[in-house]
Design brief:
60s Ribosomal Protein L30, Chain: A; 12 strands; alpha/beta; Alpha/beta knot; 4-stranded mixed β-sheet; 2 domains; 260 residues; single chain; 22% strand
Length: 260
């Protein structure tokens, strides 16, 4: 991306500007859904651009070191950008992108596939961390189930932009399991106790690994529907792991097996 010093007139000076007020409203999911957009701040904008997305709107300071293509660009005062930012450490650039969705049947995967199904995650940051690890470990796709907003700002930030490079879809758990069966994937459910150790499961086979929130775990119906369960041994004082940490360990066991 070209790096040039850009000087421009000021479009928005006040934090009370109507466009800035709208950006503040877009911090809330219901407003993003109503408009069919999502907001990206800072470094993750480049990850969105690299995936082929073009911002509908770009808000930047008067002097900015990066030339970013957008349908509309607004030069803003620092005060206005700080008001509009979702972050506690406000980013210099804010972009609004048109929303998009990927259906289960649109997912593409290698053979043998390795897919993560994340059931009922409570914290957007956990989904973001799962996406980041998925990118690093070469996971084919992530399916999030339950009431999760895939474009929550905390998902985008915690993923470090992987939300734009890893295939992600949102579906109900039954549809996710049915899709896994139709795609020929074995369903492996991660549980806190009673499952097989990771190294004893054939993760070279096409696999859908199902993980759940640390506080609640997987629902009984999901565990019952799995072909097998897996448990990470705990040898210390703790009896559970954060879902993203557990997913990372199990994903890299699959990487280990497939690299051997």
């Amino acid at each position: 991306m070209p790096r040039t010093a850009i000087l421009a007139h000021m479009d928005i000076e006040s934090g009370a500007n109507e466009r800035i007020k709208r950006l503040v409203r877009l911090h809330q999911r219901r407003h993003r859904v109503a408009e069919g957009v999502f907001v990206v701040e800072g470094d993750e904008i480049e990850a969105a651009l690299a995936s082929g997305l073009i911002p509908a709107e770009l808000y930047r300071p008067e002097t900015n070191g990066t030339e970013i293509p957008a349908e509309q660009t607004f030069v803003c005062s620092g005060r206005a950008l700080r008001k509009a930012s979702y972050r506690s450490d406000p980013a210099a650039v804010i972009a609004v992108f048109p929303g998009f969705a990927t259906a289960l049947d649109d997912l593409r995967y290698d053979d043998p596939a390795f897919v993560i199904i994340a059931e009922n995650l409570e914290k957007p940051g956990n989904l973001g961390a799962i996406l980041r690890t998925s990118s690093a470990a070469g996971v084919d796709a992530v399916v999030a189930t339950g009431d999760i907003d895939p474009f929550n700002p905390n998902v985008i930030r915690a993923s470090r932009g992987a939300v734009f490079s890893v295939q992600l879809t949102v579906a109900d758990i039954q549809s996710a399991l049915d899709w896994s069966r139709s795609a020929g994937l074995q369903v492996v459910a991660a549980v806190s106790e009673g499952g097989k150790p990771p190294w004893s499961i054939d993760l070279k086979a096409a696999t859908a690994l199902v993980v759940g929130a640390e506080a609640t775990g997987l629902t009984p119906g999901t565990i019952a529907a799995a072909d097998m369960t897996v448990t990470i041994p705990m040898n210390g004082a703790v009896d559970s792991l954060n879902v993203s940490a557990a997913m990372a360990m199990l994903s890299y066991e699959a990487v280990r097996q497939r690299s051997g």
